[in-house]
Structures are given as C-alpha cells and as structure tokens.
Amino acid sequence: MRITCVSASNNKFSGDKSTSINVCHKIKEIIMNETREEAIIDIIPLKDYDIKTCNLCGACSKVGYCIYDGDFNKLLKILEASQGIFLVVPHYSPIPAKLIMIFEKINEITYAGWLNNPVYQSPFNNKAIGIIGHGGMVESEENLRYYHDHLVTPVAQTLKALSFNVVKLNDDFSNGVTFGLSDDSCLKKVDNSIFPDIIQDWTMIEERIKLIVKNVIKTIMC
C-alpha cells in the first residue's frame, strides 16, 4: 500500500517547525503504529515544489501531463501511484496558492483528456483522500466549524469535482478534520520576526486526526 501526505503550506522559512509537515509525520506514525498495515508513505511539502500556472495550451489532452512543468509532473506521478492521499491545509488564505494551481492543472488534464477521448477516465477516479485543515485560532466548537466550512469544505468540493473520494471524519465533519491552538499561550513572540512561533499540542492533534487516518485506510482496504 502506498500513501502520500501533501503539506499544502508554502512557508519556506518554517523548516522543521512547519505544522503541516509535522502533521504528515504524525499521520505516518499513526499508520505504522495503529493500523498495522504495511505501507510506503511519501511526505510531499509543496513549499519545495515550483508549481507553474496552467496556460490552457491543451497539450496535456494527449500526454496526460503538463509539458511545461516538471515539478508538477513529478508530484502528479507520485499521486497517481498512491492508493490513498492525505492533504494537510493551513488557513492563511482561502486556499493556498500552489494547491489551487495543482487543482487547476488536474482539472485541465481531466477535461482535455475527455475532449480528446470520450471514454477517458481520470487516474484519480474514486481515489481516497483525507483532508486535515488547521489554523491559528484557539480551539472552540465555533472555530473548528469555521475551519471545516470555510477551508476544508471548499477543498473537498473541488476534489469531489475531480472524482476523488473525500473520506469524512464523521457525520458532523463530513469533509475532513480540523484543529486549532489549545490556548493563547501557544503563540510565542520571536525577536526579529513579524511572525510568532506556534507551540502545538501534539497529543491533542494526534487524537484529533487518528480517526480520519483510520477511515482513509479502511476505505482503501475495502
């Protein structure tokens, strides 16, 4: 079983403090320790990929990839080879820019492929994907719902339109799981930086995401 976890953050300066990337590592731990399934788990930080915008040339209709974007094609190949995907999305914009560019290109490959061949089927048809949304607001029912409805849900609706199988957390959070900060003390001012350090409660985060990890694995195995 091959799983890919994508960190949608484009924060080039976060290093090993990146919440999104560390969530991917936590997902890997859960899969290895909790599900007892043998798996190859790739962690993809989008901050390391120089994704280019789509210019609607249509060349992808025949080749199934972008003739202008090597980094996108590298990512596309990994995603196509995966049985399941996790997407970790931070809330610092409605949807992070590189994620939108990836969605745009997958959409054009799918649409152009269908125009070229009416029986074309996307390699992502019914592929299981779990979405984890997070941000810098302190945890509350209202804030978790906000992240679900205004971050996770738009991402989920786009993925559904691209034929992915978006795995739900539960009936209340039907498009994915969300988390915030445990309290205001999690933000630590840093000298010579406009942005604070964020101290995450990783025990809480692990418990929060564990169910959707299991749900994605269960969907893959069915």
Summarize the structure in words.
The structure is a single chain. This protein is of the alpha/beta class and about 220 residues long. The chain has one domain (about 1-220): Rossmann fold (3-Layer(aba) Sandwich), CATH 3.40.50. The chain contains six helices and eight strands; from the N terminus they run E-H-E-H-H-E-H-E-H-E-E-E-E-H. The chain has helices spanning about 20-35, 60-65, 70-80, 95-115, 140-160, 200-220, and strands spanning about 1-5, 40-45, 85-90, 130-140, 165, 175-180, 185-190, 195-200. The strands form two sheets. Strands 1, 2, 3, 4, 5 and 6 form a six-stranded parallel sheet that branches. Strands 7-8 form a two-stranded antiparallel ribbon. The longest helix is centred in the last third of the chain and has 21 residues, at about 140-160. The model has no long low-confidence stretch (mean pLDDT about 95).
Summarize the structure.
The protein is α/β, with parallel strands linked by helices and 222 residues long. 42% of the residues lie in helices and 18% in strands. It has helices at residues 19-35, 60-63, 70-80, 97-116, 141-161, 202-221, and strands at 2-7, 40-45, 84-90, 128-138, 165-166, 177-181, 187-188, 197-198.
What characteristics describe this protein?
single chain, 222 residues, alpha/beta, Rossmann fold, 6-stranded parallel beta sheet, two-stranded antiparallel sheet, 8 strands, 42% helix, 18% strand, globular
How many domains? The number is 1
Query: Structural class, from helix and strand content?
Result: alpha/beta
Number of helices: 6
Helix-residue proportion:
40-55%
Element-by-element helix/strand order: EHEHHEHEHEEEEH
Largest sheet properties: 6 strands, parallel
- Average pLDDT, all residues: 93
